[in-house]
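1st attempt posting a full record on here, be nice pls
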Amino acid sequence: MIIILIMKYTFYTIELYVNLKTGYLLMPFKTRPSCVTDYNWLMTLHHESYFDVVTHQFGSWDKDEQLEMFLKSWHAENLTIILNENKPIGMFIVNNFDNCLWLAELQISPTFQSKGFGSRIIQTLLTNARQLNLPLRLRVLFKNHRAKKFYLQQGFISISQTNYHYVMQAS
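the predicted structure (as tokens):
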């Protein structure tokens, strides 16, 4: 559960989001659709997000294969940029299918990880999924232990596996 504390000062209002389970302050954020000028930043984010876990799981980083995977994300119509103080700090892609909302990607720049941005995105998506009466699903590479732990803390459970991923769901 998230509680919103609103503090009004003479010249401005601050909204603080606190996760009641953990007591952590969740950072405010905004989003916007991606645009052509995001290309280089998003490619860097992809590499920062995946290099360690891909080399750990598969033994090497295949530049051509990773470029192909990045380009699939880049061409997604619903690629959303996460902003903090109007600067990009992450991205996500959500697809609305008949049987679920599918979180295809969630990447937060390492500088902004563990500051509540990912939790806020997930909580927002869970609220949207509940309003649609759909589960929220995603997949996590087997060797991405940090991401799996994060999603378990957000209320996801593992419901199946592919050759390389856990498939997880939250209702």
